[in-house]
């Protein structure tokens, strides 16, 4: 016989009798659980609750989980002399226990593969259509703002221009400057073998003005701005502020989408120009240090050997990239549910989607301009 505080355990052959003489509550659940754990798994157990004067949810959970675990191991657990209230609590607790559902692994067949591919394709097409719908909403609200200027929120536009553009200038300029330095250094190492060091100017100019300046700027803006749009709109959706806007007769698209996306449309070309200037400056500095190409020579070679079409090709992409980033960020924010996990998931998803969309659009632009011979 084993007896601890409030619990007595007697062994009789292959059956163990457990008598509880005090209340089984959260205060003594640890001692009771340790005492029950010492009973050998092969023993059948009978638990007598006749002397229990108090049983709370914690005690009922201990008894029901102990009974379930021992039944899974092949032994039986009987609970006897429970009062009506105690039996009702035990039944309610047992019904509330989570049930693990073992989902059998489906065999990999041609049908299952086609089904998976079909669902992925359908979801992808639906996502693209949803983004197209958000783009249409933005364009319609922008047209309405042009017809009714009193509905346009200029203060919000200025605020978002500052957040999207002005505060991004340091990181964009630093990134472009370092890219220019790297291009000049790597180009100098290769072109020096052929005595064509002067062509490093053409390499830097074409790479930065045509591709890298606006592309890397858009990627940085996608990372910091798409996430900001999603987090801001998603937080408002979680707090039901968007529903409150509709109740007050305010159009969330006009209040939230138009200032943000329009700010991107205005500021991304400016950030692209800043990136181009910083990249050329970094390239010129490294070419001067590494190759001895003076700033005056760099400027002369830049003006004579670089077509203005390269600048236009880079800047034409900026509005398209801005639309993609803004639409993806706003759409992801509106998909946030009423929990923080959804907010984090949609924020990271918007960043990945925006960067992917920017890179795909840049590839399509490259193919388009190459087919036109520009």
Describe the structure.
- The chain has twelve helices and five strands.
- By secondary structure, the protein is of the alpha/beta class.
- The chain folds into two domains: 2-96, 2-Layer Sandwich (Transcription Regulator spoIIAA); 137-372, no CATH class.
- Strands 1-2-3-4-5 form a five-stranded mixed sheet, with helices on one face.
- The mean pLDDT is 85.
User: Number of DSSP helices?
Assistant: 12
Helical amount: over 70%
Name the beta content range.
Answer: 5-15%
The sequence of SSEs as H and E is EEEHEHEHHHHHHHHHH
Shape verdict:
elongated
Strand arrangement in the largest pleated sheet: 1-2-3-4-5
Total of domains = 2
Radius of gyration, taken over Cα atoms and rounded to an integer in Å: 34 Å
Terminus-to-terminus distance = 94 Å
Average pLDDT, to the nearest integer? Answer: 85
Number of strands: 5
Major β-sheet profile: 5 strands, mixed
What are the low-pLDDT stretches, counting only 5+ consecutive residues below 50?
Answer: none
| Category by helix and strand content | alpha/beta
Give the helices and strands, then pairings.
Elements: E1 2-4, E2 7-12, E3 15-20, H1 29-37, E4 44-48, H2 57-72, E5 77-80, H3 84-96, H4 110-147, H5 154-164, H6 169-191, H7 200-238, H8 241-247, H9 252-291, H10 295-305, H11 308-334, H12 340-372
Parallel strand pairs: 3-4, 4-5
Antiparallel strand pairs: 1-2, 2-3
